[in-house]
Design a protein that fits this description.
Elements: E1 4-10, E2 13-20, E3 22-26, H1 30-43, E4 47-52, H2 57-63, E5 68-72, H3 78-88, E6 94-99, H4 105-111, E7 115-118, E8 127-131, H5 150-160, E9 165-169, H6 178-181, E10 186-187, H7 195-202, H8 220-224
Helix pairs in contact: 3-4
């Protein structure tokens, strides 16, 4: 499944190519279908590859595979359609919108919905951006995001649009996240979490857990100044080894 590429033009010359995620919009209501597709496309952070009814969704995915599917709660048998999509394409997240009534909570999770937006939700409620290793390999010495990576560009677009943004970097090694932390509203370290568990954690249905197994340095200069035979010794690390947070427990004031 290949991401679409958007290219900015200056005259006749392309100056930058950006990998954008591809999204299929599913709704039996034409107005909803076109409205959501148009709103998502206008945000500039993804490419809408098609819009289909629930009945057409499986065929549409077979013809033009997407990286994610958003499905309208008014779609007849939404949970059945979502279940069929997830069974056929288990790695493709399915997100419901306009969810209410019977299609809530446990029912959505059991049907395989990765996440869902309630009836009062908007396109600008929240952006969740996964960030891959900027150098795509443990043998590269550079641990920083240059700003040209597809995930980082999506993060920056969301921040520029004023959307609350959760960054989810994949920490196969101790990356420098200084220019991620200073932009995102929240950062969740990812060691292989599934889309479903990630969305449940962001929604407060699960507690984040675990501590950093290594420190996260503040800069590459600090990394290069480290001793080669001593772990976790960078100057003023962004996050020390063992760092970790949990959600605060709600408190109820006495009457």
């Amino acid at each position: 499944m290949q991401p679409a590429r958007a290219t900015e033009q200056v005259g006749h010359m392309a100056v930058r190519a950006i990998d954008l995620p591809r999204v299929l919009v599913v709704s039996d209501v034409l107005l909803y279908r076109d409205g959501v597709a148009g709103g998502l496309a206008a945000a500039g952070m993804l490419v809408v590859v098609g819009a289909a009814t629930g009945h057409e969704a499986l065929v549409a995915m077979s013809c033009d595979a997407a990286d994610a599917i958003v499905i309208d709660a008014s779609t007849p048998d939404i949970l059945g359609v979502a279940r069929a999509l997830r069974m056929t394409w288990p790695r493709v997240p399915v997100i419901g919108f306009g969810i209410s009534g019977d299609a809530t909570g446990i029912a959505c999770a059991e049907a395989g919905l990765t996440g869902f937006v309630g009836r009062e939700g908007t396109l600008a409620d929240l952006a969740v951006v996964r960030l891959s290793d900027p150098q795509q390999g443990a043998y590269s010495r550079d641990l920083t995001f240059t700003g040209a990576e597809a995930g980082y560009l999506a993060l920056q677009r969301a921040v520029d649009a004023g959307v609350q943004t959760v960054a989810v970097p994949k920490l196969d090694r101790p990356l420098v996240l200084t220019n991620v932390v200073d932009r995102a509203d929240a950062v969740l370290a990812n060691y292989g979490v599934s889309d479903a568990v990630l969305m449940q954690t962001i929604a407060g249905q699960r507690q984040p857990g675990g501590d950093l197994p290594f420190e996260l340095p503040r800069s590459m200069a600090a990394v290069l100044a480290q001793l080669s035979d001593v772990p976790d010794d960078s100057a003023d690390p962004l996050f020390p080894v063992g760092y970790g947070l949990e959600y605060a427990s709600p408190t109820i004031a006495s009457p």
